[in-house]
């Protein structure tokens, strides 16, 4: 029996990046409602080029992504007390699951020390670990499908 989180629309976009010495460097991925995973990694370090990959995912893979998000309980969080994006960089996470739509923006998080010293350590910890889980999930999917080694 399908849980409520498996019904309705699903969309996720994550971005982390900064503009610096090597231009605009970023990592971005997106799970689209049609099942397409879009991945982009732009680094100009040593004149590296942008990596762009797209792949369609099975319903089972999308269900796993939804499960990861639902179990994190990120949809209950609020980014009002999270650090604002700064010169070090920014992170953005947008999720649509069913009739819920959230959008978070915060600074880059270097380590759990940054999380602990924030005004909302519990909420930011949930965000931090969810982002780690999603990155591992996406890197696994990309490396399995394309045999490349993401950063």
Low-confidence stretches: 1-5
Placed side by side, the strands forming the largest sheet appear as 4-3-2-1-5-6
Structural class: alpha+beta
The largest β sheet comes out as: 6 strands, antiparallel
Counting DSSP E segments of at least 2 residues, the number of strands comes to 6
Mean pLDDT: 89
Principal-axis shape: globular
**Topology as H/E string?**
EEEEHEEHH
SS strand fraction: 25-35%
Q: Number of helix segments?
A: 3
Intertermini distance? 38 Å
Rg, nearest Å: 16 Å
Percent helix range: 25-40%
Descriptive keywords:
globular; 3 helices; 6-stranded antiparallel sheet; single chain; 151 residues; alpha+beta
Detail the topology: elements first, then pairings:
Elements: E1 10-20, E2 23-31, E3 36-42, E4 51-56, H1 59-72, E5 90-97, E6 100-107, H2 112-116, H3 121-146
Antiparallel strand pairs: 1-2, 1-5, 2-3, 3-4, 5-6
Helix pairs in contact: 1-3
